[in-house]
Amino acid sequence: MKLIIQELDQESNAAVHSLGYVEADAKSELIAQAFQFVESIHQTDYSGHDFEHIKRVWQNAQQLLASEPSAQRQVVELAVLLHDVDDYKLSDETGRAKKWLDGQGVNPELIEQVLDIIDTIGFSKTGYNPQLRDIETKIVYDADKLDAIGAIGIARTFAFGGAKSRPLFEPERLPTDELDLEAYAMNAKSGKNHTVNHFFEKLIKLADLMQTKRGQELALKRKLTMLSFLEDFFAEQCLQNWLALLKQTQN
Questions:
Q1: How far apart (Å, rounded) are the C-alpha atoms in residues 83 and 79?
Q2: Given 1.10.3210.50, 3.50.50.60, 1.20.120.790, 1.10.1740.10, which CATH number is that of 2-15+28-249?
Q3: Which run of H or E residues covers position 203?
Q4: 10 Å Cβ neighbour count for 191?
Q5: Is the distance from CB of 122 to CB of 201 less than 8 angstroms?
Q6: Please, is 6 exposed, middle or buried when counting C-beta atoms within 10 Å of its C-beta (0-12, 13-18, 19+)?
Q7: pLDDT digits (tens, 9 = 90+) for 210-246
Q8: How far apart are CA 2 and CA 124, in angstroms?
Q9: R_g of the chain computed on alpha carbons
Q10: DSSP 8-state symbol, 26
């Protein structure tokens, strides 16, 4: 498994280096202002939804946009930057994204497109069978979900669990095969689960739900990273039942 990860790592790193980071002076004024706005919202978050998360999702979107030239770049970029501003898991405040877009004098049709994407991509809406209708929504979905998996995803998962006062691991409590969307949403806001279960109930499954070809390629390596981590995590505790469960997810 680790050899496969190394090979995929080289391909992914080459793509990132060839693309480079899009600096502020290369963005439109509206996008630059959006960066400033979301930084003010997310700079004090400690649940894994901080401003660094937004920047990583932005960078993921740049890679996906490079492979999908027909996509409307401004729609994607605004949706990526604003996607967590009104997230129910993070705040009870709503309407901040629309209020900001209105305040910038953005075209109402563009606002509707952006807000529709944001409202569509959450896992509590898409579940295990996302039905996304346009390439812009698919790119934003993949860009966000890529940051939920892999090494970064592992770190963010435990950060979110700690922020929600969830136990790290309860070996006697095995994961549920599939949650309905209502149960998933309740779990997302509550502390009623241990963090390791989240890998089985959602994160490992995400690689198979990616909507773009490039997203699928990037997600495969990140899935292998999580599987390798979990294998070591359970082996260090000699938990044969969890190792067997992990093996089932790879079949």
A1: 6
A2: 1.10.3210.50
A3: none
A4: 12
A5: no
A6: exposed
A7: 999 999 999 999 999 999 999 999 999 999 999 999 9
A8: 32
A9: 18
A10: G
Give the residue from 31, 87, 72 showing the smallest Cα distance to 55: 31
The HSE-up count of residue 69 (CA atoms within 13 Å, CB side) is 0
Cα separation, 20 vs 52, whole angstroms: 17
Q: Which tokens sit at 138? A: 């698919």
Spatial separation of the C-alpha atoms in residues 152 and 226, rounded to whole Å = 10
DSSP for 134-192?
Answer: SHHHHHHHHHHHHTTSHHHHHHHHHHHHHHTT--S--TTSPPPS---HHHHHHHHHSS-
Contact 130, 211 (CB under 8 A): yes
Closest residue by Cα to residue 4 from 183, 203, 221, 207: 221
**What residue ranges do the domains of the chain occupy?**
2-15+28-249
Which tens digit of pLDDT belongs to each residue from 166-201? 999 999 999 876 667 777 666 666 566 899 999 998
Q: Angle CA(203)–CA(209)–CA(213) in degrees, nearest 5? A: 120
